Predict the 3D structure of the following.
Amino acid sequence: MLSIGDHDVALIVCDLPSRPYHRRSESIQRVTRIAAKSSDQPSVIVGDMNTPVDSVHFQQLRSRYRNAFAAGGHGYHATWPMPLPVIAIDHCWVSRHINVAACRLKWTFSSDHRPIVADLIIGTDEAGASR
């Protein structure tokens, strides 16, 4: 739990296995169960999920969370592998209590992943109304 101003924000950080034969559905279901416990408050899920953002495995997570890049980003969304990324496997998801003002990807040679930077407004619903 983070305290940001007057708000408590649940932060879930993920680094799911990258093994080719790992069943990602089980790992994503575990993240979804953990996230469901915090979905009634401002919460953010971030990390390397080693699964494309458009995967069917995120369907249940999408019922309570929004992908920050889909909500506030534009342009090329691929995050891996650097220096020529071709797939979006790094994620930032936000609960309905958070509005995404902007989301962008940076370039770095310090990692084989592109970093995600999201400008979030805490204490609003997805329409931007204060809570």
Remarks:
- The radius of gyration is 14 Å.
- The mean pLDDT is 93.
